[in-house]
UniProtKB/TrEMBL annotation:
InterPro entries: SelO. Keywords: ATP-binding, Magnesium, Manganese, Metal-binding, Nucleotide-binding, Nucleotidyltransferase, Transferase. This is Protein nucleotidyltransferase YdiU. It catalyses: L-seryl-[protein] + UTP = O-(5'-uridylyl)-L-seryl-[protein] + diphosphate; L-tyrosyl-[protein] + UTP = O-(5'-uridylyl)-L-tyrosyl-[protein] + diphosphate; L-histidyl-[protein] + UTP = N(tele)-(5'-uridylyl)-L-histidyl-[protein] + diphosphate; L-tyrosyl-[protein] + ATP = O-(5'-adenylyl)-L-tyrosyl-[protein] + diphosphate. The active site is at residue 251. ATP binds at residues 90, 92-93, 112, 124-125, 175, 182, 261. It holds the Pfam family SelO. Its EC number is 2.7.7.-, 2.7.7.108. The lineage of its organism: Bacteria, Pseudomonadati, Pseudomonadota, Betaproteobacteria, Neisseriales. NCBIfam families: PRK00029.1. The gene is ydiU.
């Protein structure tokens, strides 16, 4: 079935690339689709705010129909998975169904879970309600946190059964991004000795997203430099909020520096540098403390694809900038989290001593920072803050050093500092147990908890008493939650 929406300004861009970059596909209809969630704020931003009321729009979002004038396509890419070359991968359960011109620029609309593609590798191409809710909520939560990410426009459900570890029901998420281009797109053609395709893709990427690179003496080298910077800054932002991606394979790394592919992710509850959110990651390759290094490892894989164009020495120089960019940005984020106006080299020691105290007690990462904002520059340490640490005497010593540093920094007062800190230290993040609670309700047909949690996550830095339950310490049963790649 084809639908025409006259006010939908189609602007094919990725679809205009030659066929070797993608395959035409046909989505598989879902029975009895229903709209579970509609992101009104994003729809307004994209000028799609009236679309939800259009006849046939839910069918389009479910993959039951396609747009007149735009082919449904799935892109091909390859990648390293858990450090091992996996060969050809591609969009196995996602398909690009529209590219539209918006006030913010061209945006791709992608359906995840709309059926098989040539890259499904014998899988069904479906997504389940559980994983779809997690992606819908987290992509928008990350956007609200100010972290670059793909977005989620809609969530459609269906009673169709889908087999995973157990029988679940199907769902489709409408994902939105300027592009879903991945490191793996470049790897695919490089490892097939199709360097002309690598150049063509690099030229397209520069023209569409990095036009400033075209004006340089070496556009491909400038592109690598730009991706190095965006990746370093992205992972620094992850570290600051305690976010773990869970499956940082090269096919899940965005050329635009976006958080891409929400699967077995997790926000840390108790601080643990070795935190592994994906129980399939039995070696801890993608632990919290490893994420910065893995980002660099993945960039090495990308740089390999450009070596014939830029040379090894130039590539090494570009990659060597990664650590400095990461540390500069992470240091600036720590400065803001600590309420400092200036960052000094010795502040790494202050931050490191704090991390050691938090690690020893597995102190709740999110709640600690909000409570630290309550610390007065003088006087007694609030009990609700001090009691979060096991070694209270050591924490007292740290607080004395921190207060001295605040004095040297010239902080203007407790109230202003608290305001600054609360503007960068979220009160609400998508903890796994919160996602689990709304998933259980949705599986019983109750979507109100999902909408309520989404509303809280849309304003993560606000102090909204009606959402206080989302800012509480996780319950004991949360420790038994397990998230895998199927999530």
């Amino acid at each position: 079935m084809k639908h025409t929406f006259p006010d939908l300004p189609l602007a094919p861009r990725f679809a205009a690339l030659p066929d070797r970059f993608h395959s035409r596909v046909q989505s598989t209809p879902l029975p009895q689709p229903s709209l579970i969630a509609w992101n009104e704020a994003l729809a307004t931003e994209l000028r799609l705010d009236s679309a939800a009321g259009k006849l046939g729009w839910v069918d389009f979002l479910a993959g039951n129909s396609s747009l007149t004038g735009y082919p449904q396509i799935a892109s091909v890419y390859s990648g390293h998975q858990f450090g091992v070359w996996a060969g050809q991968l591609g969009d196995g359960r996602a398909m690009l169904v529209a590219e539209i011109d918006t006030p913010a620029g061209i945006r791709e609309l992608q359906l995840k879970g709309a059926g098989q593609t040539p890259y499904s590798r014998r899988a069904d191409g479906r997504a389940v309600l559980r994983s779809s809710i997690r992606e819908y909520l987290c992509s928008e939560a990350m956007h609200a946190l100010g972290i670059p990410t793909t977005r989620a426009l809609a969530l459609v459900g269906s009673p169709q059964p889908v087999w995973r570890e157990t029988v679940e029901t199907a769902a489709v998420v409408t994902r939105v991004a300027p592009s879903f281009l991945r490191f793996g797109h470049f790897e695919h053609f490089h490892h097939r000795d199709q360097q002309d395709a690598v150049r063509e893709l690099a030229d397209w990427t520069i023209a569409q997203f990095y036009p400033e690179c075209a004006a340089t003496a070496q556009p491909y080298l400038a592109l690598l430099h730009a991706v190095v910077e965006r990746t370093a800054r992205l992972i620094a932002a992850w570290q600051a909020v305690g976010f773990c991606h869970g499956v940082m394979n090269t096919d899940n790394m965005s050329l635009l520096g976006l958080t891409l592919d929400y699967g077995p992710f997790g926000f840390m509850d108790g601080f643990d540098a070795g935190y592994v959110c994906n129980h399939s990651d039995d070696r801890g390759r993608y632990s919290y403390e490893q994420q910065p290094q893995i980002g660099l490892w993945n960039l090495h894989c990308l740089a390999q694809t450009l070596l014939p164009e830029i040379g090894r020495d130039a590539a090494v120089e570009a990659l060597q900038r990664y650590q400095t960019i990461f540390e500069d940005h992470f240091g600036d984020l720590l400065r803001q989290k600590l309420g400092l106006r200036q960052w000094r080299e010795e502040d790494w020691g202050l931050a490191g001593d704090l991390m050691a105290l938090l690690q020893a007690a597995h102190t709740d990462w999110t709640i600690f920072w909000r409570r630290l904002a309550m610390l007065p520059a003088q006087g007694a340490i609030p009990a609700e803050l001090r009691d979060m640490l096991l070694d209270r005497d050591a924490f007292d010593t740290w607080v004395a050093a921190y207060r001295a540093r605040l004095g040297e920094d010239g902080s203007l007062g407790d109230t202003e500092r608290a305001t600054r800190m609360n503007a960068v230290n979220p009160k609400y993040v998508l903890r796994n147990h919160l996602a689990e609670e709304v998933i259980r309700a949705a599986q019983q047909g109750d979507h109100d908890p999902l909408h309520r949690l989404a509303a809280a996550l849309a304003h993560p830095y606000d102090d909204t008493p009606e959402y206080d339950e989302f800012a509480a310490l996780p319950p004991d049963w949360a420790r038994t939650l397990s998230v895998s790649c199927s999530s």
